[in-house]
């Protein structure tokens, strides 16, 4: 049997089709709507259905689309035009959703950022994408304001997300008591500069209909990722890419009830996974999207009392925490029919615990930012296979090849590098033609860097990663980026960063460090140094001091040997 699984061939070359859930077609329809057009269609179909919920306050679809139009006009008055990059540095909040679609409505390009990134991390990305305008959580505004003048966007719009909370909660946050002050400090702050505009100042009249929108092949989003190797770079995702992936998700779950589902937005919208599942997929089917600025079991408990979830995309630690709360009688999850896990391995024990308390399904998928991001999934039915990442999505082809020579195919059941092709595959890396050529082959095949095996019936199991990317908590960490920070410490002579198993099937960032002669360093001092330069999930959880690092004949650090060394010490 060949190891090329071609979505365009006859069904007998796609053995997994017999495992598809009932009603799932092997191909999606042609993509005909841009992302703002898909939102507009939902607003026309479900004008009075709730689109967004935030701490109990709701926004209907017709109201959401009106706000998008009003924000788009405000952005246009500030000079935003088609093709311009607009940076979003926001947590999950209604303004994030409005800003995302308002930028796209103008044909401009959204660049998503983690608002908890350090100034150093943000600077690298802003230098690369050269955004003309940034829409920023007021708590993060100081980091943007400190960017060098030639990097800082011309216009900065600040967002106070508490203004989208119910009135009584806004009043409670202003009370002169310690608890209120502490809560307010977490949620909002005074903008760093008086020159910054408020989000509310953008919202005027609606955008004239004559203003042209984007085309399907236009860039919608630059999503920064470490890719298969190296420092973060912007993956170019078009409207067609992202819309196709939302359509593939819709095809994968024929049991969804359009206009009636309740999605819980516990995944960050700035992450490719949260972006597709919540910002594009949920909005395209008229779902109610309940937004959480951060994942917190207590917030989920409160929301579930009046808006019980029916669809909950997440990562294994989220499912574990919620399932344990449900087992203790603190939370009713019996309304959740579908849960899709991604970004990190899903333990079978988590599946069993979740399905016990919900009665619904928890299935694992596989994706990467360069695939918008979902490419494979376990069928949402009895044929699902825990421990596997599933089978190709509709309209998706896979191939298993020799990692050192992608022209050579690997036999069924043998480990090889997974390659993908489909309408969701990205168009390349922003301003990085060499990286693009290395990852995206001329015939449209995407090299994933993941080593997999494929069973005779088409189920894929990830066995290793050829790339050195570390995935921790669902986020990608480039070892090179962390090493660069470590080597800037005056007492560190050499450093190597690798992943180590955490004990729950996940990974953690670990560092092997050689100190300079005569220097004395403690592990916690190293971590403290990193925290000022890296966001929390990139900071090494384990630091080991070693006399030297293993290197190849040409002087390259042998990370695999470093990892083995740390494993023996562990």
Automatic annotation (TrEMBL):
Its EC number is 6.2.1.3. It holds the Pfam family AMP-binding. Keywords: Ligase. Transmembrane segments: none annotated. SUPFAM superfamilies: Acetyl-CoA synthetase-like. Residues 40-430 form the AMP-dependent synthetase/ligase domain. The keyword Transcription regulation does not apply. PANTHER family: AMP-DEPENDENT SYNTHETASE AND LIGASE, LONG-CHAIN-FATTY-ACID--COA LIGASE. This is Long-chain fatty acid--CoA ligase. It comes from Leucobacter komagatae.
């Amino acid at each position: 049997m060949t190891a090329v699984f071609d979505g365009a061939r006859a069904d007998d070359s796609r053995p997994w089709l017999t495992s598809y859930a009932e009603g799932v077609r092997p191909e999606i329809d042609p993509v005909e709507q841009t992302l703002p057009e898909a939102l507009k269609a939902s607003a026309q179909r479900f004008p009075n259905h709730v689109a967004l919920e935030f701490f109990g306050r709701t926004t209907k679809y017709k109201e959401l689309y009106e706000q998008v139009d009003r924000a788009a006009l405000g952005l246009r008055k500030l000079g935003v035009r088609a093709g311009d990059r607009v940076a979003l540095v926001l947590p999950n909040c209604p303004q994030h959703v409005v800003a995302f679609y308002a930028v796209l409505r103008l044909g401009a390009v959204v660049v998503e950022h983690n608002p908890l990134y350090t100034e150093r991390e943000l600077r690298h990305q802003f230098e690369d994408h050269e955004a003309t305008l940034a829409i920023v959580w007021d708590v993060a505004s100081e980091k943007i304001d400190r960017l060098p003048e030639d990097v800082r966007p011309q216009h900065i719009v600040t967002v106070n997300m508490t203004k989208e909370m119910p009135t009584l909660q806004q009043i409670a946050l202003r009370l002169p008591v310690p608890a209120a002050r502490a809560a307010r400090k977490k949620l909002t702050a005074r903008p760093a500069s008086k020159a910054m505009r408020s989000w509310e100042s953008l919202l005027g009249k609606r955008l004239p209909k004559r203003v042209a929108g984007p085309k399907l092949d236009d860039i919608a989003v630059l999503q920064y990722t470490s890719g298969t190797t190296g420092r973060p770079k912007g993956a170019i995702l078009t409207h067609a890419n992202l819309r196709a992936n939302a359509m593939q998700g819709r095809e994968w779950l024929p049991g969804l009830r359009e206009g009636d589902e309740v999605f819980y937005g516990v995944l960050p919208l700035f992450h490719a996974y949260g972006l597709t599942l919540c910002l594009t997929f949920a909005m395209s089917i008229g779902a109610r999207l309940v937004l959480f600025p951060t994942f917190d079991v207590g917030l989920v408990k409160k929301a579930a009392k009046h808006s019980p979830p029916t669809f909950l995309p997440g990562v294994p630690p989220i499912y574990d925490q919620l399932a344990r709360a449900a087992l203790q009688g603190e939370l009713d999850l019996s309304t959740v029919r579908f849960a899709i896990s991604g970004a990190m391995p899903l333990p079978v024990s988590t599946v069993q615990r979740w399905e016990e308390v919900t009665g619904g399904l928890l299935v694992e998928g596989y994706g990467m930012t360069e695939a918008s991001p979902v490419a494979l999934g376990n069928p949402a039915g009895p044929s699902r296979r825990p421990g596997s990442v599933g089978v190709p999505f509709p309209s998706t082809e896979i191939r298993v090849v020799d990692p050192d020579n992608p022209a050579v195919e690997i036999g069924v059941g043998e480990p090889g590098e997974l390659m993908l092709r489909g309408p969701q595959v990205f168009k390349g890396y922003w301003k990085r033609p060499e990286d693009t050529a290395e990852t995206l082959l001329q015939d449209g095949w995407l090299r994933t860097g993941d080593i997999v095996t494929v069973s005779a019936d088409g189920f894929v199991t990830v066995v290793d990663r050829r790339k050195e990317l570390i995935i921790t908590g669902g986020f990608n960490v480039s070892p090179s980026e962390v090493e660069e920070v470590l080597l800037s410490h005056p007492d560190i002579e050499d450093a190597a960063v690798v992943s180590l198993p955490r004990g729950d099937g996940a990974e953690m960032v670990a560092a092997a460090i050689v100190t300079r002669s005569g220097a004395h360093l403690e592990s916690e001092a190293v971590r403290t140094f990193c925290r000022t330069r890296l966001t929390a999930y990139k900071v090494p959880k384990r630091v080991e001091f070693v006399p030297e690092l293993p290197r190849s004949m040409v002087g390259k650090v042998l990370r695999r040997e470093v990892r083995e060394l740390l494993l023996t010490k562990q």
